Amino acid sequence: MKLHIVFCGLLLNVATSAYAEQTPADWLETTAFAGHQTDYSGVFVYQYDNRVETSNIIHVTEASGEYEKLESMDGPQREIIRHDGQLWSFINHKMVQVGSQHERNSFPSLSPEQLSALSANYQARLLGVERVAGYNAQVILFQPKDNLRYTHKIWVHTDSGLLLKAAVLGDKNKVAEQYAFTQLQIGGKIDRSWIRECDSLGAHGKVPLNETNDGITPTNSGWVADTLPSGFNKTMEVQRRMHGNHAPVTQIVYSDGLSAISIFIEPNDKDEDDVDGLSSRGAVNLYHKVLDENLITVVGEVPPRTVMQVLDSVRYNGK
User: Fold this and answer.
1) Do 49 and 192 fall within a single domain?
2) What is the per-residue pLDDT across 112-162, written as a single tens digit (0 to 9) for each?
3) What is the extent of the structural domain holding 221?
4) pTM of structure
5) What is the spatial distance between Cα 201 and Cα 235, in angstroms, rounded to a whole number?
């Protein structure tokens, strides 16, 4: 029995050493592609403040592209189907196309285009191997080099590279929000029957080039932010229709590879709720104030001081 324990321990040490040979950059590159190229299905939880939301996800790749089905398992029925950037949502008991996926990828995906800036703004460390949803996962910590962003911690499947768990750490390393698989199947026989429905929806729901059904159009508004944390680069700038707004709202999105900051500019309609203020949900902070005839809102997965600093630097530079 003792020899068996020693032998198992040696095997674990060898496996851990093999994982450690890869750098954090190697793991991230693998993870960025695994989220799009791996077939998987499972259940994950999103925790923030004192709330927990549970979702079921199925992701497969076919010759015709990448498919994903996301369904809420608590609260009101919510279902989203994605196919190569196009989105459909379950609304009024039927699937309705809601446009294109402009925002950064969500759990468990990372965007490979955004990873190059991470090393300049985060100190990455490998923290060993842990178990998540029954799978071995390499733990990686991203410690920011300034006080303008949060610490991030991720768990990456050691075989496929799929992201299994992701946490944002706030003050005193307290978890501000966290995504984590609780059940997961990687590869094997995964339900694909719903893909036929998705293809049928696509055949009857084409979206005009450069404009989507939710009124999103690329733009160059002339609005700029002079004081963004280093490493935050603009990933998109659009005009979009938003519920409750008569006029289109300008949205500018910046990312440093792990976090995103969005700036919204809209005409000030002088509603009673359009007053200066700061609010938060989990690791996401929101700050808005009236600037001349416009209401400016900054939303980001960054500390409160950062969203306030960014908003205070927003100005119109002219088209």
Assistant:
1) yes
2) 655 666 888 999 999 999 999 999 999 999 999 999 999 999 999 999 999
3) 217-316
4) 0.83
5) 28
